[in-house]
Amino acid sequence: IGYGLLTSRFLSDLCKCDLHKLEEGPPLQAVLTREEGLQYYRTMQTIRRMELKADQLYKQKIIRGFCHLYDGQEACAVGIETGINLSDHLITAYRAHGYTLTRGGTVREIMAELTGRRGGIAKGKGGSMHMYTKHFYGGNGIVGAQVPLGAGVALACKYLGNNEICVCLYGDGAANQGQIFETYNMASLWKLPCIFICENNKYGMGTSVERAAASTDYYKRGDFIPGLRLDGMDVLCVREATKFAAEHCRSGKGPILMELQTYRYHGHSMSDPGVSYRTREEIQEVRSKSDPISMLKDRMLSNNMASVEELKEIDVEVRKEIEDAAQFATTDPEPPLDDLCNHIFYNDPPMEVRGTNPWTKLKSVS
């Protein structure tokens, strides 16, 4: 089937997943339509450019504080999102910019949040690690703390009987936390519709997985919970595995574990140059051999699904969107001081909170 000379869909071979306590895994082939391919390409490219712009603004001291970038891991966010519904729930750690975008946030809102402005997605009060949208319970700054919260969201889904699931993300560094194993136990006992996903980017801060974990088979760590390990750099592979896991949860079989083998190009956070515990050559090799955007691009071009010009056009549009968002994020005003005490209580606050009342005039002391 073709539009002029372009193919509208094709069947792609996928890498086999490693399985734990599962008879069979996700399919070894997946259909990619032209529309899907172009959409995935645009979203991943947007995340990549947005993170590079954040890096630039951070170095100019326009973005301050904690900032963890997601470039290199784009196929995880895009693949997961295309394997579930927007009405499903998702919670992650502090490397959250990509998920904020795939869950419905805009580049403008994300960039303005990074610079602490009024038009930010959390009104400029959350910053890099604390962005939220509907059914997205944010980045969370405490390592591993989002996992029990995600199980709580899954418990709510089960209680309400709405056939929704919760995707609960954490990194290889958090995988050794006790609270994660406590959560596995509860989730399994109560058969919660929860997909636990370990984004294994090979390093927890500056420590390689081999130096931090006695077993690096994170997908087997659930012990009594079935698991699968897959290539987190292949957006189609992630999509199919997520669909498989979501189906497992929705059918009432309880939780499932996924380990996505991925890689981050930047350091752990902006204060980490990222080259003291790994070589530049290692980073370069991943970039050249398994970059998620290049892999999708090559797949589309070699199957005649898109033209080089078309993809270049998307790149230009994305760059313009990022530039416009950065312009907005650097000119939008900061929230006024009076806003500091708003949006803390979900209902009417008490008359006095920690020595301040609604008539207290706040002043900035630097």
From TrEMBL:
Entries under CDD domains matching the protein: TPP_E1_PDC_ADC_BCADC (cd02000)
EC class: oxidoreductase
Reactions listed under catalytic activity: N(6)-[(R)-lipoyl]-L-lysyl-[protein] + pyruvate + H(+) = N(6)-[(R)-S(8)-acetyldihydrolipoyl]-L-lysyl-[protein] + CO2
Gene3D superfamilies noted in UniProt: 3.40.50.970
Highest rank taxon of the organism: Eukaryota
EC number(s) stated in the UniProt entry for this protein: 1.2.4.1
Residues annotated as domain Dehydrogenase E1 component: 42-336
Nucleotide-binding recorded as keyword: no
Keywords linked to the UniProt accession: Carbohydrate metabolism, Glucose metabolism, Magnesium, Metal-binding, Mitochondrion, Oxidoreductase, Phosphoprotein, Pyruvate, Thiamine pyrophosphate, Transit peptide
Keyword Magnesium found: yes
GO biological process, alphabetically ordered: glucose metabolic process; pyruvate decarboxylation to acetyl-CoA
GO molecular function: metal ion binding; pyruvate dehydrogenase (acetyl-transferring) activity
Pfam families membership: E1_dh (PF00676)
Cofactor needs: thiamine diphosphate; Mg(2+)
GO cellular component, one term: mitochondrial matrix
Known function: The pyruvate dehydrogenase complex catalyzes the overall conversion of pyruvate to acetyl-CoA and CO(2), and thereby links the glycolytic pathway to the tricarboxylic cycle.
Record-given protein name: Pyruvate dehydrogenase E1 component subunit alpha
Organism per entry: Cyprinus carpio
Gene name tied to this protein: LOC122143707
